[in-house]
TrEMBL record:
This is DUF3142 domain-containing protein. It comes from Pseudomonas saponiphila. InterPro entries: DUF3142, GH. The lineage of its organism: Bacteria, Pseudomonadati, Pseudomonadota, Gammaproteobacteria, Pseudomonadales. Pfam families: DUF3142 (PF11340).
């Protein structure tokens, strides 16, 4: 019991009130709103306006394109559509170049276009540390995703790290062997606690199991969403911090 609570109880006794029920004194606090100003790593997606918090950013994950089957030109198969910031010099300590993938059936021109784009960012003097693949692989398809990532890792120049986004249920429902094949291939998994533009309501049910992956991970939050940090994260040897997905008001 804190000093403020004790003073309130003493005052109520003097006014003739009985003791408050204990459940009122130790009520569970409501989830806090994710305030981007409290963090220093952000996803910057296409169409999101510049915000003051970017001035404090140490790490940026910048969307640079989406890879999907061509709807406008079906004969071309899979294509990379450039998106996001134009190639320019960024002052942050770490810059990750992000690609949103809707298919894993990449063609050789897609790989070349991606690597050329990453090298152009590097040539500006930006501190490009690697690329991130944002692909919503279901748990039952993780083995195929692992094969894709191993091939991509071999194509990347050695100086670049490989990051992926991940779903929370990987830690609960995925085949341990499928998760295991990501070790030594990806450098981090950023686990998303949101869907669309809102926090997933039962995220607390999944977080204690994230260590089961045996992979370095960060936790992805949505700006303005709900969040209450469990102590288990701070105690985890695999936890590497947070990334906040910025969105327009």
């Amino acid at each position: 019991m804190g000093p403020v609570t004790a003073l309130l109880l003493v005052g109520m006794r003097r006014l003739g009130f009985g003791l408050l029920p204990l459940w009122l004194c130790w009520a569970t606090p409501a989830n806090a709103v994710v305030d981007a100003a409290e963090y220093n790593a952000f996803w910057l997606w296409s169409g999101v306006k510049t915000q003051p918090v970017l001035g404090q950013a140490k790490t940026l994950y910048i969307l640079q394109g989406q890879i999907s089957r061509s709807r406008r030109h079906p004969g071309r198969g899979v294509e990379l559509i450039a998106q996001g910031l134009p190639v320019s010099r960024l002052p942050q300590e770490q810059v990750w170049v992000v690609y949103r993938a809707h298919t894993l059936a990449w063609t050789e021109p897609v790989y070349r276009q991606l690597l050329d784009q990453v090298q152009r960012w590097q040539a500006t003097g930006s501190a490009v540390v690697g690329i991130q693949i944002d692909f919503d692989s279901s748990t039952h398809d993780l083995e195929r995703y692992g094969h894709f990532l191993r091939d991509l890792r071999q194509r990347l120049p050695a100086q670049y790290r490989l990051s992926i986004t991940g779903l929370m249920d990987w830690s609960s429902n995925a085949d341990p062997q499928a998760i295991g094949q990501l070790k030594g291939v990806v450098d981090e998994v950023v686990v998303q606690t949101y869907q669309g533009r809102r926090s997933i309501s039962n995220y607390t049910a999944y977080l204690p199991r994230l260590d089961r992956m045996g992979l370095p991970y960060k936790v992805g939050l949505i700006q303005g969403g709900d969040w209450q940090e469990p102590q288990a994260l701070r105690d985890s040897p695999w936890f590497r911090g947070y990334v906040v997905f910025l969105q327009n008001p």
